[in-house]
Amino acid sequence: AQTVTQSQPEMSVQEAETVTLSCTYDTSENNYYLFWYKQPPSRQMILVIRQEAYKQQNATENRFSVNFQKAAKSFSLKISDSQLGDTAMYFCAFRETSGSRLTFGEGTQLTVNP
Amino acid sequence: NAGVMQNPRHLVRRRGQEARLRCSPMKGHSHVYWYRQLPEEGLKFMVYLQKENIIDESGMPKERFSAEFPKEGPSILRIQQVVRGDSAAYFCASSPPMAGQNTGELFFGEGSRLTVL
């Protein structure tokens, strides 16, 4: 079974600084998807960024980028120029390409301080 | 609103009552997933359904919980004889068929928060 591990329950960063959230996963599959979702206090699950395992290039979305290390099964999220609105719980998630369920990590609570 | 619609947003039940949570997937999506989020925890998979079929219910508790996705109408997550431990946020997500424009992403509703007194 796939597992997703986020080893940082809480992190904080100063506004405008850069922060990196860690995620590792375990799978025997070669093709799969990886995601970072954000859950602000409103509890809505919002997709931040997506990576397909067969693509070597790291995904980027504006201030958000990932460091995808397939051999190490690592998928970290870097947030540049942190903003107060980035304060949220961040979940790393894994999904098999041919599979169904999305498997989540336990989350990292990020607080951006003014 | 073309997103995943869940209702009710908040539901209060007394122990022993039944809870029914509804989910309408995004237009064009035929796959529905239910997740449970206990306080201060991550999202745990419960069940994956397609129209009139349960594909994977490996995350569903063996008793009191059931789910359906009929040919017409929303998907329903039903919890019978609720207990305090059922208090949680229940999220529904949908995705298009595996073929075609499937980017792997699940689209989430805003969740239904169940409180059992």
Summarize the structure in short:
Chain A has 114 residues and is mainly beta. Helix content of chain A is 0%, strand content 53%. Chain B has no helices and eleven strands.
Overall 3D geometry of chain B?
globular
Rg of chain A, Å, rounded: 14 Å
Please report the distance between the alpha carbons of the first and last residues of chain B.
Answer: 32 Å
Q: Percent of residues of chain B in helical segments? A: under 10%
Notes on the protein architecture:
The complex is a heterodimer of chains A (114) and B (117). Chain A has 114 residues and is an all-beta fold. Helices cover 0% and strands 53% of the residues of chain A. Chain A has strands at residues 3-5, 10-14, 19-21, 24-26, 32-39, 46-52, 60-61, 64-69, 74-79, 88-96, 103-104, 108-113. In chain A, the strands form three sheets. In chain A, strands 2, 5, 6, 10, 11 and 12 form a six-stranded mixed sheet that branches. In chain A, strand 5 (32-39) and strand 6 (46-52) form a beta hairpin. In chain A, 37% of the residues are buried. The model of chain A has no long low-confidence stretch (mean pLDDT 93). Chain B has 117 residues and is an all-beta fold. In chain B, 0% of the residues lie in helices and 48% in strands. Chain B has no helices and eleven strands. In chain B, the strands form two sheets. In chain B, strands 2, 4, 5, 6, 9, 10 and 11 form a seven-stranded mixed sheet that branches. Chain B is globular, with a radius of gyration of 14 Å. The N and C termini of chain B lie far apart (32 Å). The chains are: A mainly beta (114), B mainly beta (117). Chains A and B meet through strand 5, strand 6 and strand 11 of A and strand 4, strand 5 and strand 9 of B.
Task: Please render the helix and strand layout as text.
The complex is a heterodimer of chains A (114) and B (117).
Chain A lengths: L2 E3 L4 E5 L4 E3 L2 E3 L5 E8 L6 E7 L7 E2 L2 E6 L4 E6 L8 E9 L6 E2 L3 E6 L1
Chain B lengths: L4 E3 L2 E4 L5 E6 L6 E7 L5 E8 L2 E4 L8 E4 L6 E5 L8 E8 L11 E2 L3 E5 L1
Parallel strand pairs in B: 2-11
Antiparallel strand pairs in B: 1-3, 3-8, 4-5, 4-9, 5-6, 7-8, 9-10, 9-11
